[in-house]
Amino acid sequence: MLKYIAVCSFGGLLFGVLDGLINANPYAQKLLEVHKPIAKTSIKIPLGFLIDLVYGLVMAGLFLFLYKMQSGKTGVLK
């Protein structure tokens, strides 16, 4: 269970970092200018980070649920 929580936390942190890198870089800002008329002007960073942590939890849970159904005999092949 501790390993599951660690993997979920790492996945959520990775989602958060990638979300920040994708949306905060200057190239993305130029591409996202098209959506400015309908986009929100304020961003709630803690809420977004919490959502990314939940995504990590869901992704790790799905992987554990589907792990036995995957083909392959070793963990590397699965």
What can you tell me about this protein's structure?
The chain has 78 residues and is an all-alpha fold. The protein has one domain. The chain has three helices and no strands. Helix 1 (2-24) packs across helix 3 (45-66). The longest helix has 23 residues, at 2-24. The chain is elongated. The relative contact order is 0.17.
Q: What fraction strand?
A: under 5%
Our count of domains comes out at 1
- Runs with pLDDT <50, length 5+? none
| Beta strands, count | 0
> Gap between N and C termini, in Å?
20 Å
Q: Helix- and strand-based class?
A: mainly alpha
Radius of gyration: 17 Å
Largest sheet: none
- Continuous helix count: 3
Mean pLDDT: 79
Overall spatial form? elongated
H/E series, N to C? HHH
Residues in helix, %: 55-70%
Could you give a quick summary of the protein structure above?
The protein has 78 residues and is mainly alpha-helical.
Q: What is the secondary structure topology, with strand pairs?
A:
Blueprint: H1 2-24, H2 26-31, H3 45-66
Helix pairs in contact: 1-3
Key terms for this structure?
78 residues, mainly alpha
